Amino acid sequence: MGTPSERANLEKQAANLTMAITIMRDAGAGEAGSDVWLADQEDKLNNLKSVLARDTNVGVQRVFPNGHPMTVADTDKRHSSVSDD
Question: pLDDT tens for residues 1-34?
Fold first, then answer.
């Protein structure tokens, strides 16, 4: 998952987000859009917790295992017919 400092930063962010959600629940009751904001922040917190729960000693983990690659291998790239490449 990265370096120990990255993990510490994610843990700190999760703690801060937990506190922010608690404050928003209390202070934002009845405010327009607070329910949407809370839902977004709770989803973010759940994602952070799932990342922190992963085993970091298993090597490379694909974030989107069923996704399509966004990069194209150099051998598959189209090359210009007028360049020297």
Answer: 567 788 889 999 999 999 998 988 888 777 777 8
Q: Which of 82, 21, 18 is nearest to 48 (CA)?
A: 18
Domain boundaries, the chain: 1-55
Report yes or no: 35 and 24 within 8 Å, Cβ to Cβ: no
Angle subtended at Cα 46 by Cα 69 and Cα 67, rounded to the nearest 5 degrees: 10
Residues in CB range of 11: below 8 A, 6 or more apart: 52
CB atoms within 10 A of CB 85: 6
Q: pLDDT tens-digit profile of 49-65?
A: 988 887 766 666 666 66
Q: Which DSSP string do the residues of 34-54 spell out, in sequence order?
A: HHHHHHHHHHHHHHHHHHHTS
